[in-house]
Amino acid sequence: MGHISSSAARRAEAADPPARPFAGKTVAVVHAAWHSCGSYQVNVSQIAAYKALGARVVSVAMMDDLARRPPRGGRWTAYFEASRDIGADRRFYSGAPFSALASRLLVDGWWRLIHGDQASWLIELAKRAPLPEGFESESIDLIHANHYFTLPFAERLMRGRKVPVVLETQDIQARQYVLRNKGGFFITPHATYDDMLEVELSWMRRADLCAHLNEEEHRDFQKLLPELRHALIYPAVASTPLAHGRDIIIVASDNYGNYMSLRWFLQEVMPFAGGARVAIYGNIDGGVKRRDAALYESHRALFKGRVDDIGAVYASAGCVLLPTIEGHGLSIKAVEALSCGAPLVATPLAFRGMQVNPAKLGNVALAENARQFAALWRDAQARAVSGEPAGPERSDTRRLYEEAFSPEAYARALAMAAATL
Q: Is the pTM of this model over 0.90?
């Protein structure tokens, strides 16, 4: 995804925000060492936005599992390879070492994990992530942490100093853990949603400002933590190239919500497709194969896997399908689809977390059930084959992207929120 993110960073740095409140400051963006997913694209855009606001930005990646000391180990190697476009002025890495198993991690973390308590497990890992090599030379003016579970690690980065912390929540994580636990095997008594939510909230109380990237999340956290400062800041999602092709595509990363949605598409929508074509991009292929090998094999030809230049995929699109039936929080892939300006065939849930009525978007066709989705898909393919799409740069979805989800829009909103600190 390097082509998209690098160009987005250049656009954001070239933007002319109303002020440059971070000129002369150093901001640490602290995040999980993830790649090839929506959260990674959010991190790339955060770094670009702070640079547009005048800051020097360092990226601090924390591994969300036990790992060898970076740069050794397969997971670190994969992360380095896939995150070259992150855009930071300097990069740091850390994670709980395997030697942590000799500590209380087995009791405080692993024992809870086997009951499904992923919230506590991630906190215990973060507590044991050492200060990254060379970080002692940095003087940090602001920490922008992603996900509550990086906060113990962020506090270590402060080294006893008081540094303002913006926490970007990226959904209520306890919801995600409940979804993931549906596909796993855990021993009783199982960790409940309320158990994991309380862990999440207790750490969030340490942040100075909580930034939320969708309407639902903002509303829920305001009710759960009324004593904290909250800001609704839609994520800056890197723009894709405008769509001028004829391909019918689905783009999805490997998470449980995407798996459930794609399973619905393959099992319920495909029988009504009448030979309509589609190509499925992203590492969701591995998730389907792992969870339902028979389903993967029966549709193997549709899966194209992860590609280095997803921008080229969007550029060749004549229509993007968003068969979303499960998931929480804003869908980053849906925002990417908005940015390319292509016609969309979608379920209403694809637009969750956005303050928008998708029925009013001229180039969006909404489907309420599988049979209707297939019919709209066939219609979209017929139009794509017949000729060039009509002005993706002037489409309703492209205009929505520019106004609410572009790097420039994010930088403006971030500058306003930062003023409260």
A: no
